[in-house]
C-alpha cells in the first residue's frame, strides 16, 4: 500500500523538523517509492526501495551526487519513463545525512 507508506514518510519528515511533499503520485497500491532528500532546498540524495536477494525490500541510495539538482531531475525523468506507477516524494529534512543513514539501515 504505497499511499499509506507515503503518508508515514511525510509524517516522519515532519517529526524530524522538516517537511515533505508529493512531487508525483503513482499507483496507490503498488507504485515504487522514490525519495528525493534535500536539506534547506539543496539536493542531498535520491533513495529508492529495492527488492534484495533475500526477497526483502531495502532503501538504497541511487542517482547523482550531492548538490547536482540538474542530474537529479534527469534521474527522476528516467525513473518515471521506466516505471509510470512510481511515486516521487521530496523530503526536506535537517540533518539529511542522519535521515539517510537511518532510512537505509531500517530497510
UniProtKB/TrEMBL annotation:
User: What top-level branch of life does the organism fall under?
Assistant: Bacteria
According to UniProt, the name of this protein is: DUF1491 family protein
Q: Look up and give the organism this protein is from.
A: Sphingomonas arvum
Amino acid at each position: 500500500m504505497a499511499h499509506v507508506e507515503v503518508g508515514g514518510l511525510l509524517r516522519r519528515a515532519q517529526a524530524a523538523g522538516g517537511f515533505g511533499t508529493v512531487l508525483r503520485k503513482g499507483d496507490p497500491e503498488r507504485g515504487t517509492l522514490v525519495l528525493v532528500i534535500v536539506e534547506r532546498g539543496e539536493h542531498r540524495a535520491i533513495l529508492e526501495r529495492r527488492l534484495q536477494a533475500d526477497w526483502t525490500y531495502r532503501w538504497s541510495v541511487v542517482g547523482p551526487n550531492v548538490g547536482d539538482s540538474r542530474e537529479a531531475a534527469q534521474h527522476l525523468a528516467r525513473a518515471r519513463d521506466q516505471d509510470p506507477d512510481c511515486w516521487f516524494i521530496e523530503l526536506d529534512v535537517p540533518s539529511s545525512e542522519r535521515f539517510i543513514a537511518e532510512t537505509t539501515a531500517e530497510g
